[in-house]
Amino acid sequence: MTRIEKGEMMRERWRHSFSEWYNEIIERAEILDVRYPVKGVYVWRPYGFKIRARVVEIIRRILDSTGHEEALFPLLIPEHEFAKEAKHIAGFEDEVYWVTHGGLEPLKVKLALRPTSETAMYPIFALWIRSHADMPLKIYQVVNTFRYETKHTRPLIRLREITTFKEAHTAHASAEEAERQVHEAIECYRRFFDTLGIPYIISRRPDWDRFPGAEYTIAFDTIFPDGRTLQIATVHNLGQNFARTFEITFENPQGEQEYAYQTCYGISDRVIAALLALHGDDSGLCLMPEVAPIQVVIVPIWFKGRKEMVDAEMEKLKDELSDFRVHVDARDLRPGAKYYDWELRGVPLRVELGPRDIERGEVTLVRRDTGERFSVPRSEVKERVGEALREIAANLKERAWREMESRVHEARSMEEIRSLVVERKGVVRTAWCGREECGKSMEDRADVDILGILDEEASGSCTGCSARAEKVVLMGRSY
Ligand code: PR8
């Protein structure tokens, strides 16, 4: 049996009862406690929190190395600032939580819990930016935000308290610079998702689906095993819209006052949802080594009378593997019970050490992603563990891309759109004339959304109206 076949055999339930699998894993692998008594709000448990910390570390590293600076703005936004940008408020008003009282006293100015921080940051950007020399300004923060979601809430996917909102906001002296920033942001997110082995499709949202107040929105979507897409990152070119509202002006080299050009881009807990969901199987999570709280678990195989010898060897082995995040499972349990636990939690590599291994001068390694079990010489253990972890990361990434790509189909008629998305649980690429009216009618007729416009040349005729096709669009059903 090939490695691929072996891996696939372990993904029956994951594939066919994905939603059930996901909800169960989040709890059983101790990622979140979902019993908190507020809808759409969950508790991070220590194991999940460690994964989260590593994911956040990766995006911080990428942003810091590209000249972004981390800051921290307040959670509360006064109503008069929040309401300034008309389209923004129109887009968010039914999702905002309001603080109306301080103790028993009604507040004179209502305060919004940030659903996103444009209206918290930009009045301050207006104070910071004076001349073109103050730009580019590239600020980010990692905070919680609140959105009163009315659609079905789901752990990490659709939250009312988004606990891991990484938002970046930039200001530039020209439209070209802002445009270049959009590309830099896309590159940052590519690197981020590539590190996490999360496959993605990049598209431009149709105009009716762009971020409230933006000129245009570029989105990253991934596809879950149930065929639904999940938006995992967005990059927005804000043009001068917010700058006009918040009076963010600068003196250009000619000595004239101009409005700044802005972009903003964000990711959320959804990235962690994708990380867990896409790399799992029927036994539980399969964590990417880069973010696994435990990369290698050592399980001793004790035989009567040989426990001391195994324990002594195990200590030595642990020291030899100190470059990795190693955990020794010395609990008084059967090895099988321990295997089960660590498989559920997605530890990438297991090392088994028993008297026989010791006599032979070997250790046994077991890969979480493929279930492969093999012996390696004790003298090479450090190199072989490193090698196995690299192979696991590469395999998880490759198999996630393969799985996602297998769900994308070409559709040439309305019937095909419907059947490929609804029955085959996929996502389709199809031709579109570019007219909003026709796009919306395609969505209605197929009961499938236009997710985005792909950066590709269109040919032939529009699937919706038979006029000349101008664009290739991605259609599917999303979370
Ligand atoms: C902005 N402003 O806000 P965006 N639960 C989990 N994740 C979510 C939820 C939710 N309820 N809603 C959105 N997201 C801009 C850019 C600052 C940063 C995730 O953009 O509204 C989605 O992955 O598009 C989305 O792409 C990201 O937050 C940013 O939200």
Model description:
- The chain is built from 16 helices and 23 strands.
- The protein is of the alpha+beta class and 479 residues long.
- Strands 3-7-8-14-11-10-9 form a seven-stranded mixed beta sheet, sandwiched between helices.
- A hairpin with a 5-residue loop joins strand 12 and strand 13 (257-259).
- It binds ligand PR8.
- The site of ligand PR8 has 20 residues, from strand 8, strand 11 and strand 14.
SSE order and pairing:
Elements (H helix, E strand, L loop, with lengths): L2 H7 L2 H5 L1 H11 L3 E2 L9 E2 L1 H19 L4 E2 L5 E3 H4 L3 H7 L5 E5 L2 E9 L4 H11 L8 E10 L14 E12 L2 H22 L4 E4 L11 E8 L5 E11 L1 H6 L2 E3 L5 E3 L1 E7 L2 H9 L17 E5 L6 H14 L5 E3 L6 H10 L4 E5 L1 H6 L1 E6 L5 E5 L3 H25 L2 E3 L3 H10 L3 E6 L3 H11 L2 E5 L17 E6 L3
Parallel strand pairs: 3-7, 15-16, 15-17, 20-21
Antiparallel strand pairs: 1-2, 4-6, 5-6, 7-8, 8-14, 9-10, 10-11, 11-14, 12-13, 17-18, 18-19, 21-23, 22-23
Helix pairs in contact: 4-8
The structure holds ligand PR8.
